[in-house]
Amino acid sequence: MSTTDAQHAAPQPIYLKDYRPPAWLVEDVKLTFRLDPTATRVLSRIRFVPNPDAPGAFKLDGEKLKLISAAIDGVPVEPEITDTQLTCKTPDGPFTWEAEVEIDPQGNTTLEGLYMSNGMYCTQCEAEGFRKITYYPDRPDVMAPFSVRIESDLPVLLSNGNPGKRGDAFAEWIDPWPKPAYLFALVAGELVAHEDSFTTAGGKDVDLAIWVREADIGKCAFGMDALKRSMLWDEQVYGREYDLDVFNIVAVDDFNMGAMENKGLNIFNSAAVLASPETATDANFERIESIIAHEYFHNWTGNRITCRDWFQLCLKEGLTVFRDQQFSADERSAAVRRIDDVLALRARQFREDNGPLAHPVRPQSFVEINNFYTATVYEKGAELIRMLKRLVGDNAYYEALELYFARHDGQACTIEDWLAVFEDATGRDLSQFKRWYSQAGTPRVYVTEDWRDGSYTLQFHQETPPTPGQDEKRSLVIPVAVGLLAQNGSELRGTEVLELTSREQSFTFENLPERPVPSILREFSAPVILHRNSDKAERLFLLRHDTDSFNKWEAARGLMKDCLTGMALGENTADEDLLSALADVLRDDTLDPAFRALVLQQPSEDDIAQTLFEANTTPDPTRIHQVSEQFANAFAAHAEGSLASVFTAMKPEGVYAPDAQGAGRRALLNASLTLLSRRDGGERAAEQYDTADNMTLQLGSLSALLRVGSGISQLERFYDQWADDRLVLDKWFSMQVALATPGDAARIATDLAEHPKFDWKNPNRFRAVVGGLASNAAGFHHASGKGYDFVSDWLIRLDPVNPQTTARMSTVFETWRRYDADRQDLMRAALGRIQSSPGLSRDTGEMVARILE
Ligand code: 0A1
Ligand code: ZN
């Protein structure tokens, strides 16, 4: 390809500032599908009306479609067609468009549009997949009611909305609620249903079904229960009722993401819905519950009110993540859920925000929108809603939400609409708060203090480091929840929210009887990095006494991070006071076992690397791995007796149930077992493996064994037991790579990639092995470069088949700048090889270019 061709082919970014309303609106859509694996015919009949506010030419999106015929008001037309668009001369006023296209679901390996997964037809249209099904204005601000007819011999034929006529080899579906095309869905296959029903507060009976392959019918009960609890919760907390006669969920094996909120027909990655005690861990159950809730909650926050354009993605995603977090907090332990959410935020979003892929919660431009389904849009987006709620107060928050639903139902909205609702409902000026949506990067908040004559002053300084394309940062509104403790551990002042608005700001607490110990950023009230020179004694004090459970946990985390970074730099060894304090928490049975397990969990090696990098030192992944192991060994030795008693005390009682309480006990049981295995050579773990009657205990013991370099025979038995269960086998693949020693990881991954069951076109299996290696920090970053080679070779191979999953996984290289020159060279070379592979997708091309920038 010559330079000019290459320049010509370079995909152009799309900018938020260029948004224009659609020239043509859609009144009604009728689709007929004649299903065939390689030659499906899609007939569309669409009523178009000109948009009086934005006159313009008629253009439809369309990709990989074979146009068979087209007509306007019954008269055949010959449109102009490019790879991505169709244009045609039209009447000035309303008209009916009819087209027939042919598509090839079997040949569609991208898992976007209409594709096949294990003999079943299914669709994925968000963000821009509908254009691979038929010609259409594939943009979220074009909303219309759809009716669909599916013609096929397959027994189950599903689409959005309510069921219409059903006959021999056809089914019709009518969705009365106007929706954008990205919410369209169709499923056809040999499926069976786990059925139930729900009566809404308004008395409407809704038929519920989870559709699966016959072998999976025993894995639906939990998902169904989670769905019914979600429906009730949304009525009770947000006053939102369901609005169709049926709600269908389908489990699909080949899926790029977790799940999709298509109107009335949610499609799930089977890993995100199927669970039984024997095959799924507690963590799987919890994730399933929150994804079911998330997709269900989208019915109001996403479907009834959608996004005007894809730059507004956080409008539906940030809010819906926040709602699913609230749901899980209510259904389980709020304190534990908050810690889990912050762990995930720091591991994924802070990492993103502090590297080359940093972008605002509402990006200003993109090349490929699929690359912006990120932790920043989702998880930081949810943090913004959480801050807003804290700033306006709970009552005002729910009043504003009522207004949002009343004012914008049926519309495609923007962040401006969302904030205007809050301004109107509360009278508050949110112009400064709005900066959170446009400014990338994790703010740093520095705190110093002053104590004088009964007055205690906290001085804050806020600063956001530059991010790609954004050198100048402005001050943000940062709610900092603070409590003050007395030296005896009692509360001098309960939690108060201080609102930081300027670069430097002080707050004084008067009339205090003694110098307080501050507990700052309680509940992690803002997504910032807090810097405070706090000594070990103060942290140990907070770990013992803080009444805010997040900050109690945070105290332990801070101590462990300090200790581990010090060890990595050769400055200290595992600190005895810290080990004792951790052992106190371990033994403290007034504390929730789940919380105790979280306190004992060491910061990840990636977290230590990032912390060192921020302190201007070059992290050495091998050394970090060694000191993490040393710390765990030291704690195991220090607390062996207590670990043994807690391990015994946490032994399961009664039948397994995936509830928060039981899961908490098992988390502490497995945490103790993992540490004890460092002392007993895996004896207890082998015993637990033999008696385990649920996956949490089976996997807990197997991973404890693998961590101490044992478990060979159990791995073989595990394989024999689960060879026919795809989801369990994913665990078998991933754990071997993720828990391998640094020197073995790439070799084990390479061997597993030769395994006959390594079906690399299945995203879950690909993630298990390739993602499994990337999650093994010391193995991936091994000085030989073999980890980088393995991952990049596979990304190059996957890209032409599935660009979306390739592009997402390329983020494993986003931290390359942290490391030493040799590793940087190796990673840049790996990225360079990806970048120069012929025909690289727009998705991966954009990601690699941004990572290297
Ligand atoms: N809206 C879904 C996530 C999703 C996005 C894109 C997909 O395909 C490219 C699939 C799912 C959610 O938030 O759950
Ligand atoms: Zn979502």
UniProtKB/TrEMBL annotation:
<feature type="domain" description="Aminopeptidase N-like N-terminal">
    <location>
        <begin position="72"/>
        <end position="179"/>
    </location>
</feature>
<dbReference type="InterPro" id="IPR012779">
    <property type="entry name" value="Peptidase_M1_pepN"/>
</dbReference>
<keyword id="KW-0862">Zinc</keyword>
<dbReference type="Pfam" id="PF17432">
    <property type="entry name" value="DUF3458_C"/>
</dbReference>
<keyword id="KW-0482">Metalloprotease</keyword>
<dbReference type="InterPro" id="IPR024601">
    <property type="entry name" value="Peptidase_M1_pepN_C"/>
</dbReference>
<dbReference type="GO" id="GO:0008270">
    <property type="term" value="F:zinc ion binding"/>
</dbReference>
<dbReference type="InterPro" id="IPR027268">
    <property type="entry name" value="Peptidase_M4/M1_CTD_sf"/>
</dbReference>
<dbReference type="InterPro" id="IPR001930">
    <property type="entry name" value="Peptidase_M1"/>
</dbReference>
<dbReference type="InterPro" id="IPR035414">
    <property type="entry name" value="Peptidase_M1_pepN_Ig-like"/>
</dbReference>
<keyword id="KW-0031">Aminopeptidase</keyword>
<dbReference type="InterPro" id="IPR045357">
    <property type="entry name" value="Aminopeptidase_N-like_N"/>
</dbReference>
<feature type="domain" description="Peptidase M1 alanyl aminopeptidase Ig-like fold">
    <location>
        <begin position="441"/>
        <end position="532"/>
    </location>
</feature>
<feature type="domain" description="Peptidase M1 membrane alanine aminopeptidase">
    <location>
        <begin position="222"/>
        <end position="436"/>
    </location>
</feature>
<dbReference type="Pfam" id="PF11940">
    <property type="entry name" value="DUF3458"/>
</dbReference>
<protein>
    <recommendedName>
        <fullName>Aminopeptidase N</fullName>
        <ecNumber>3.4.11.2</ecNumber>
    </recommendedName>
</protein>
<dbReference type="Pfam" id="PF01433">
    <property type="entry name" value="Peptidase_M1"/>
</dbReference>
<keyword id="KW-0645">Protease</keyword>
<dbReference type="InterPro" id="IPR038438">
    <property type="entry name" value="PepN_Ig-like_sf"/>
</dbReference>
<comment type="similarity">
    <text>Belongs to the peptidase M1 family.</text>
</comment>
<dbReference type="GO" id="GO:0016285">
    <property type="term" value="F:alanyl aminopeptidase activity"/>
</dbReference>
<dbReference type="GO" id="GO:0008237">
    <property type="term" value="F:metallopeptidase activity"/>
</dbReference>
<feature type="domain" description="Peptidase M1 alanyl aminopeptidase C-terminal">
    <location>
        <begin position="537"/>
        <end position="853"/>
    </location>
</feature>
<dbReference type="GO" id="GO:0006508">
    <property type="term" value="P:proteolysis"/>
</dbReference>
<dbReference type="InterPro" id="IPR042097">
    <property type="entry name" value="Aminopeptidase_N-like_N_sf"/>
</dbReference>
<keyword id="KW-0378">Hydrolase</keyword>
<dbReference type="InterPro" id="IPR037144">
    <property type="entry name" value="Peptidase_M1_pepN_C_sf"/>
</dbReference>
<dbReference type="InterPro" id="IPR014782">
    <property type="entry name" value="Peptidase_M1_dom"/>
</dbReference>
<keyword id="KW-0479">Metal-binding</keyword>
<dbReference type="Pfam" id="PF17900">
    <property type="entry name" value="Peptidase_M1_N"/>
</dbReference>
